[in-house]
Amino acid sequence: MSSNAPSSSAGGVGSADSAAPRRNSKRPKYSKFTQQELPACKPILTPRWVISAFMLVSIVFIPIGVVSLFASRDVVEIIDRYETECVPENLRDNKVSFIQSDANKTCTRKLRVKKLMKQPIYVYYQLDNFYQNHRRYVKSRSDSQLKDNSSWNDVSSCKPEDMSNGQPIVPCGLIAWSLFNDTYNFSLNNQQLAVNKRGISWKSDRDSKFGNDVFPRNFQNGTLKGGKILDPTVPLSKQEDLIVWMRTAALPTFRKLYGKIERDLQPNETIHVTLENNYNTYSFNGKKKLVLSTTSWLGGKNDFLGIAYLTVGGLCFFLALSFTVVYLLKPRRLGDPSYLSWNRNPGGH
Amino acid sequence: MKRYVYINDDESSHELFCDNRISNRKYTVLNFLPKNLWEQFSRFMNQYFLLIACLQLWSLITPVNPASTWGPLIFIFAVSASKEAWDDYNRHLSDKKANEKLVWVVRQGIRKHIQAQDIHVGNIVWLRENDEVPCDLVLIGTSDPQGLCYVETSALDGEIDLKTRVIPAACMGIDFELLHKIKGVIECPNPDKDIRRFDANLRLFPPFIDNDVCPLTIKNTILQSCYLRNTEWACGVAVHTGNETKLGMSRGIPEPKLTAMDAMIDKLTGAIFVFQIVVVMVLGIAGNVWKDTEARKVSLDLVKSLYAKFIDWDSEMIDYETGIPSHATNTAISEDLGQVEYIMTDKTGTLTENRMIFRRCCISGVFYGNEGGDALKDTKLLNAVAGSSPDVVQFLTVMAICNTVIPIKSKTGAILYKAQSQDEDALVNAAAQLHMVYVNKNANILEIRCNGSVIKYEVLETLEFTSDRKRMLVVVKDCQNGKIVLLSKGADEAILPYAYAGQQTRTFIEAVEQYAQLGLRTLCLAWRELKEDEYQEWSLMFKEASSTLVDREWRIAEVCQRLEHDFEVLGVTAIEDRLQDGVPETIETLRKAGINFWMLTGDKQNTAIQIALSCNFISPEPKGQLLLIDGKTEDEVCRSLERVLLTMRITSSEPKDVAFVVDGWALEIALKHYRKAFTELAILSRTAICCRVTPSQKAQLVELLKSCDYRTLAIGDGGNDVRMIHKLISVLALVEEKGCRLQEQLIIVLESSAFLSQYSFYKSLVICFIQIFFSFISGVSGTSLFNSVSLMAYNVFYTSVPVLVSVLDKDLSEGTVMQHPQILFYCQAGRLLNPSTFAGWFGRSLFHAIVVFVITIHAYAYEKSEMEELSMVALSGCIWLQAFVVALETNSFTILQHLAIWGNLVAFYVINWIISAIPASGMYTIMFRLCRQPSYWITMFLIVAAGMGPVLALKYFRYTYRPSKINTLQQAERMGGPILSLGNIEPQPRSMEKEVSPLSITQPKSRSPVYEPLLSDSPNSSRRSLGSGTPFDFFQSQSRLSSSYSRNCKDN
């Protein structure tokens, strides 16, 4: 910033002080603070300063944009939408009754690897149009119950999934009740492709939000089954699918980690996925996708930041350029007192 | 209604009247909570927040924890309640101190030391020198043989000179020892708050003298909270006690004052409330469409209420900052100071120094002092005095004794005069210098030393100067030859019409005119010899009149009128009242700043106009024009008012200073019958001079402007201004603050309060819009994106700390403001939230909300869309943006600004890291997690660049190509070049003599016929310029003086 006048009140009001003796008694103790005379830098928007600021922004932003875009392009992603394909063709008119029936819901999908995918490869499931951020859904959980065995009956906030058959549910609430229960099995060249499901949740959650002495109890015993049934012998801190699910998403389209494949996948390899299509997204027209993705320093595949940086950088460059042109074509002296209307028209306001 | 006070009667009065316990407390322990809450909830904003807070108790519809609303609400209430409580406690303490003070009171005939609160009506109270008077007393004895005592009444009326008080005639000469046993009855009116009137009668019981009723006036009393000075002791009978004293009656509990800012906030809260209802309805319908049956109920609270709550919060915190000791009488009004539109000022003592100097005089047609400007050095006069010219001696005698001055001999032998009025002081001192020395006053006997011989006069009656009668009357008896003489001095119109038939008053009229032209205060002196029987007859009437209880003042005036005829006018005195330092410059500056200036004075019209001219109050021709409103009857005033109004409407578009002059009489009629027209005139006119106005008229004028919703500032020092000032919302102890300091404060306060409220709206709206946008992607269910803690911290801390220092922001240095005072006018126009700046900030907040929201949900999509993380990204985006917004709006960066803006940003991270380190908190580890992600920082920079880029570009464009006046001055100031302004203030010659050369005596007369155009009913004709070298175009249909003069002549 350009600072032309380092001192704030150099000139001016000597007359205020000359009257000092008369009001000695009431005069406040002098300090630069109370007299508002601290040394100050007073930047003003000179063309040079503004143009160089915009120029600087564009110079910084365009390279960052390019780098981000490359990072995003480097990420290899396989997305497979399966919620329709995994319903037998004759039942596609009434998917909801299919998903609620006891029919066999196993389904096989083929995924072709287009580019080399370096390990670790993250397996996500993506739900669309699923409002995990709905107010009543978000609130329907009991953190104290998840954390501590002793407060297992603290289910007051969990309505409508608080009690079942007169007994508190552990873990209670709509979120836990609606736990995603599709399962995926991967095979490559008829060989089982191992998916590591350990360590997919946040360590902090495992350590301090979900107790290792809290076991599922009375879970999914109601008439209306929501989602996955938890193993009552495994403590919640080890139920990583639940922990991941309980981290609610802020957006209606979200991905959650299912597991990690810890080996490279070569181009043109075909992965066979055997999936259990259990989860009911059909009643609200939700989409289900299976996503295999590598990662970069910037995260997953997301062109937004790169494009946004390039756009902002470009616009700044354009602004800097046009300000320069305008400045050169139509220079205007700053602080010309003739712009003061009372100087043009003395006496008239 | 009367009360009968029995002196020294220990029993009877105790039940009738209250004791002397004074209480200024507003609350008691029991009623504090309900009363204080009631007061706080009488504000619309607080009601609104209570409603919101109550709604939030209903958990079904609440998106955030109720604590986020209740916490701050209770906090704010607690802060203001404890402030009130503390103030009240201090009041209680001071009351207690006063109540428990020990005083000497006669009980059962013996003097006892008792607490002040135990004084009862009828008790005799003894005071020593410098004691505070505990209640209203009627004097019955003092240490002074003449029964005089001196009191300081500054606590009552603000006047610091000593006043004399005298014991009633009936008590004169009672022995010191007997005062204990005095018995009698005082018949006095019920307590009122008029500190200038006490119409009562005293009758002493035997054995104390006669059964005659002795009239009492305010001169015989000493009122509560005065101080006894220069008198060894005094004693008096308590007549009013406790809260029923004159002081107690006039002391009201101060109502909480709403400043302009508060009022504005209340209005805006109303607007927000409506806005909320609309949004709720729209979103409620949207929610229904979305098939969620719960949504309608839920969306009621969708729009978070928080976004207006802390506007008030901010401003309240600021007040303590700006209330820098300069004017700390009421901290809340400092923001109003920047918005003053009308300044009403007293003349004497405010614009002028109130140091009167006798300059000129005219004795029997001879002008003295015209050459040198000082009559005391005029050899002509000195010779006349030395030669004992009878006219001059008479004149000087009146000067010396027609007054209420008390001479006091100091130890060195010099004579000091104790005068209540500066004019009298000037006259007596001048007389003394002209060898007519007022030596001593011994009871009713005056001693005057004239050229070595001592002359004694006995004062028979005195009627002091009142602003209604405008003259003073003294009847004295010459002790040498027993002649009774009536002496009078007063305003010309109160004296000259009563001159005896044959006297030529023309020269005196001319003298008065001439002196007034010079800005001098004039007084006419006159006398008349009374015959013995005439006096005796009149004296009886006077006695009777002065002991009436009803309308005493009026009755006395009427009686005196009978004596006041056939005066022999002796001459005219002219007294100069010098202008204060820097007054012309200050007034010029303030007027350029667009502040309307009214001068209210008791002086003569011409004097007032001259003073006004010399202090730049009105501009001389051809720039200025003065319009006169006068008239004696309703019709005349009405016509003149309409004419002036017409002229005013036409000229209001021209760059011309039009001022109007109105005198007290016309003002009275105008205010009574033509209030509407006068109000319009008041609004149109930037300058006005009201002369010959009484204190109550001053108050009426202030009231009038207040009723039109103008911020008015009244400046005054004397007791006669107290009423005017009391009428104001803003009471300022500004008498000493006149001048440059005021303007500085004005512009700073103005800017900061404007920015404050704009910024408060901006920051609240940003959050509000983000919440609204988020509701669209959360099924319109009303989920709060931000957690309650963050929201609270955002409003209370992150966004309010940086603005606190905006108080210290200066956009222009004092020097520049002084050079271009016009800038203040533009500030006034753009003050606070006018619709266009509001739209600007509204647009900015909408834009920033979009930037933050869109970037956040896109950068943190898919696998990163975890709720807590996303909310913190959005919040930090807002914090970053607001830091840059404040930085962009700050004009001067001192260390404080940097600390507040960037330190606050750092503080945001530190605080959130601390919260993130607590396992129990909802956002455990979130902030650490985010800060490790490169994408987080990249997102922040993107938000800042995308949010600030357009704002900066726009601001730059406006700054350079459509600069506001302030911007231009800022640029000029920073570029360091010389700032030229055609409107520069040139130092004005201060002495009046320099401006107005002594006028030939015939000039005023010859001008009169030219003043006729105003009567021609044509507004255009009234603007005809004279161009005859007169200082300015002064229209006067017919001088009141000359009309009364001519009438006088005709009558004879």
UniProtKB/TrEMBL annotation, chain A:
It holds the Pfam family CDC50. The chain crosses the membrane at residues 49-71, 307-329. InterPro entries: CDC50/LEM3_fam. Residues 1-19 have a biased composition (Low complexity). Residues 1-32 are annotated as: Disordered. The keyword Transmembrane applies. Keywords: Membrane, Transmembrane, Transmembrane helix. The keyword Transmembrane applies. It is a multi-pass membrane protein. Its main location: membrane. It is found in: Membrane. Belongs to the CDC50/LEM3 family. This is ALA-interacting subunit. It comes from Hibiscus sabdariffa (roselle).
From TrEMBL, chain B:
Residues 1017-1028 have a biased composition (Polar residues). It is found in: Membrane. PROSITE patterns: ATPASE_E1_E2. It is a multi-pass membrane protein. Residues 754-964 form the P-type ATPase C-terminal domain. Residues 1036-1052 have a biased composition (Low complexity). Residues 993-1052 are annotated as: Disordered. Gene3D superfamilies: Calcium-transporting ATPase, cytoplasmic domain N, Calcium-transporting ATPase, cytoplasmic transduction domain A, HAD superfamily/HAD-like. Residues 5-70 form the P-type ATPase N-terminal domain. It holds the Pfam family PhoLip_ATPase_C. Residues 101-162 form the P-type ATPase A domain. This is Phospholipid-transporting ATPase. It comes from Hibiscus sabdariffa (roselle).
